[in-house]
Amino acid sequence: MSGDAQVFLEMGIGDVIVQPSVDEDIETVLNLSFCRVKQKQSRLHAILEREAELFWRSAHKHFPNLPKMKDGLEEPGIGAKLGRYHEVVSVLNDGKKTRVFLAVDNRTKEPRALKCVPKVCFRTCDEVRRLEKEVATMKKLSHPNVVAIFGETQSSRHLMLLLQFGGRRNLFQVIGSKEEKCLPVEEARFLWKQVVDALAHCHSHDITHRDIKLESVAITDDGTTARLISFGYAERAIAPFRYQGSMPFIAPEVMLMDKSALCATAADVWAVGVLLLEMLLRMNFLPRILGWEKAGMPDNRHAQQVKQLFSGPQQLHRLWDGINPKLRQELAEGDFLTLLTGMLTVAVPERWPVNKVQRASWVQTGSKTKHRRISASYFSSE
Ligand SMILES: Nc1ncnc2c1ncn2[C@@H]1O[C@H](COP(=O)(O)OP(=O)(O)OP(=O)(O)O)[C@@H](O)[C@H]1O
Ligand SMILES: [Mg+2]
Asked: Tell me, which fold does domain 81-164 have in CATH?
């Protein structure tokens, strides 16, 4: 069936049909009917656009953390000027529904990240509320390893957050660019410790991140600073789980949605534990050893496999025995296995809180400063 015919049927034939007469053949009748369908469609489209505009114009009244719509504000795109001071330079990355641009503040020449969400992506008020919450959450946080928010604005087609620029690449991209698909121990410890500090800051403000993964960590271009980003799913610690997180970073009790065991702070700690494994051993380490193809949504089988793998120190030691001896030797100091067991404990009440992770001797070991330049200039490749 042609696209037009499909539309025709979906619109309700009775609504648009032109009654045939003796003088008109069926083809003429259908053409006239399609024509009326198209007219109706474009009228409907105009009504929906107008309705959406009315909604977004008053959205800030219902969602107090959303900005007012600014008339005449340019839509984001390379070269666009946003307000008097900011200019969009290039695309940094895309999220599921978002596009993040590199922008520059023309007063100071400082780089900024501009996270843009097209309004057409919002289907329910709950989704709008989530972005509002992202803004409110970020405003509560202030830490050298958490990306800061400088402002938010609304053009006629986008909601935009102006953020501190965390660097051109996220941790997934940094590790992905390495031949071995992992980081040297010192570099991993140095960057991971900063993620743990960021998480401790969030938890001390009763905020749980709920989507810790390699892509949620921005790395500055000189490789010296890791910053937590992507607070779209962050919630207060006691809030129920509406989103499970991303595989393979999801704790087994969250995979199972085991209500009696769920604890959002503990789930964040599990995720940073898996993050460390990915940084040190190899990205996608768990999916590889557990034979997961492309694990989109977790199911019972994934949860049972993870539970089995981390069911106790002996299993962890067995896993440990399987890794590269040189790496094992490098990790021998500082009681690394105790730390790993503390974070990847299946029994939620026994899992370490993040401040205990921060104090672990392996975390405290190693050089305090490290400077490894990745690229000299933020804008060198423009
Ligand atoms: N402040 C920032 N500085 C540098 N890069 C950033 C910044 N914020 C986001 N990015 C880049 O954009 C990507 C997507 O951003 P973010 O995760 O916030 O979007 P998202 O809507 O949560 O996407 P998803 O739902 O897919 O996680 C990040 O992985 C990162 O590469
Ligand atoms: Mg994200």
From this structure: Phosphorylase Kinase; domain 1 (3.30.200)
